[in-house]
Design a protein that fits this description.
The complex is a heterodimer.
Chain A: E1 9-15, H1 22-32, E2 37-42, H2 49-55, E3 59-62, H3 69-82, E4 87-90, H4 102-112, E5 116-120, H5 133-150, E6 162-165, H6 169-174, H7 182-190, E7 195-199, H8 214-241
Parallel strand pairs in A: 1-2, 1-4, 2-3, 5-7
Antiparallel strand pairs in A: 4-6, 5-6
Chain B: H1 3-25, H2 31-49, H3 51-61, H4 66-133
Helix pairs in contact in B: 1-2, 2-3, 3-4
The chains are: A alpha/beta, B mainly alpha.
Chain lengths: 242, 134
């Protein structure tokens, strides 16, 4: 049964050079959840992404230069704070997330009264078909790191499908995050906010290029691990300040 | 340290001071950064020109030769400056981020307002047409 709510919700799609998939994603989001507002955060795309967004009449926050995924998410959060939204749902533009699942994850967020709900590719699943070994190891490692630092098990820390409540808008813009993955989860959990997971299914990337290059496969784990540790320190300092 | 070595280092230090002063004067170097270099260069000149001070520094650093003491201190200073400059770069990048985000948000907001306005206009035009046909 669909949940009736008066919450102002908007969906943010951070995008960078996703001309192959963005049009389809926008159409599917509009068809699946027409009641939600939509914002594309174009992170300085150099291909036809901006033109496609304009043709589709999507409200777009366009970075004049590429600032990175984390900054794009932060722009979406700042926009939602400024426009007085109650909820923000982030969705990847590469076609991996199914917009048809947005209603379900939104309903679970409202039902569970979460502060952040992550669309998990691994919750309740044992098979990891099609997932590269490196990513599988990385996901398990970060899941373990979150568990060790917070005591809570989050199976999929790097999912781009998230529902973020207004209670955590400010904390998430107060400090700087790399990609709003493990470090943001630890930061919020250590401050006493509730973070949960909701099982989703993903499709294989159909176009564009992954934001993780060969170098970043080595850099990312180091960066995120350091940020998790610093996030713990920052969270306790912020708690004390409050 | 030989007198010749001290003289050469003094000359280099003076040349550096003149160069830094000129850069600051022409607005090519922020005075805050220039001051650090001027202070360090002046310290080096004083240490070089006062033998007792130079001996003290060598002992403090634990070096055998004056040159190695100076090299160690110079390396320390370079590392310090590198971190300082990277911190300044990060600050600059953060400021740029705020600027880019603000610009993006304001444009998106304007776009949203415009589309709401257009929608309202279209609705009222439809209503007017409806009234007229009645």
């Amino acid at each position: 049964m669909a949940i009736e709510t008066d919450k102002r919700v908007f969906i943010a799609i951070p995008t960078y050079n996703e001309e192959a998939t963005i049009g389809d994603i926008i159409e599917r989001v509009r068809a699946s959840v027409p009641q939600f507002d939509l914002l594309a955060v174009d992170d300085g795309s150099e291909d036809q992404t901006a033109r496609i967004l304009s043709r589709l009449g999507v409200i777009t926050a366009r970075h004049v230069c590429n600032m990175g995924y984390g900054r794009a998410i932060q722009t979406a959060i700042k926009y939602s704070m400024r426009c007085g939204y109650d909820l923000l749902i982030t969705l990847d533009a590469d076609g991996q997330h199914r917009p048809e699942q947005l209603q379900a994850i939104f309903e679970e967020f409202v039902r569970g009264n979460w502060d952040m709900l992550i669309g998990s590719r691994r919750l309740g699943r044992r098979d990891s078909e099609g997932v590269p070994l490196g990513r599988r190891i990385g996901t398990s490692l970060f899941s373990l790191l979150v568990r060790l630092t917070t005591g809570k098990r989050i199976h999929d820390t790097s999912s781009g499908l998230k529902v973020i409540g207004s209670a955590v808008f400010e904390p998430l813009t107060y400090w700087h995050f790399v990609d709003f993955h493990a470090e943001a989860i630890v930061y919020l959990l250590r401050q006493g906010y509730s973070v949960g997971e909701f099982p989703i299914t993903v499709e294989r990337r159909t176009g564009g290029r992954s934001m993780y290059s060969t170098v970043s496969h080595f850099k990312y784990p180091l960066k995120t691990s350091l940020m998790v540790l610093l996030g713990m320190v920052q969270a306790s300092l912020t708690r004390r300040e409050r | 340290m030989t007198v010749q070595g001290i003289l050469v280092l003094n000359l280099i230090a003076i040349a550096l001071l003149v160069w830094i002063g000129n850069l600051i004067r022409r607005g090519r170097l922020y005075v805050g950064y220039g001051v650090i270099f001027i202070a360090v260069t002046l310290c080096v000149i004083i240490v070089l020109d006062v033998p007792r001070l130079l001996t003290l520094v060598i002992k403090m650093v634990g070096a055998v030769f004056p040159v190695s003491a100076l090299v160690m201190l110079a390396l320390g200073f370079i590392v310090f400056m590198l971190i300082y400059i990277l911190a300044q770069l990060t600050m600059l990048s953060n400021r740029l981020t705020i600027l880019v985000q603000t610009l993006a948000i304001e444009r998106a907001e304007a776009q949203a307002k415009l589309s709401v306005g257009l929608e309202r206009e279209a609705t009222s035009a439809r209503e007017e047409r409806g009234h007229a046909s009645k």
